[in-house]
């Protein structure tokens, strides 16, 4: 009978830890969304696409794609692209190596409807990385235990 209260307390602690991790993830994701929005330029109709260097999901309606290490695009999607944050790979449709807003889409491999690209904005990589430059790393100081 004493095991039941221990299990309940353990479950409560586990749920509390999961909630804190989820809150930290949401805070970090919101910060990334704001950083990309601040670094994004005016909408463009299309961009040249030869290969996908990297990508970063920002929500089910927005992601950043890197066509080179120094060239990124912020894609706003028409509707929700379900589970975009959890998919392992994506692809982009294109025509003659060009991805166009309101025509091309993001492919996730899911059985859902395609994720059409509503808007494309170029990302100023230097501006995106600017807040990180010169910013001191946060260090948590702890007192050494006495012997």
TrEMBL record:
Q: What is this protein called?
A: Lipoprotein
What Pfam families does the record point to?
A: DUF6491
Q: Which domain of life is it from?
A: Bacteria
Q: Which organism is it from?
A: Dyella jiangningensis
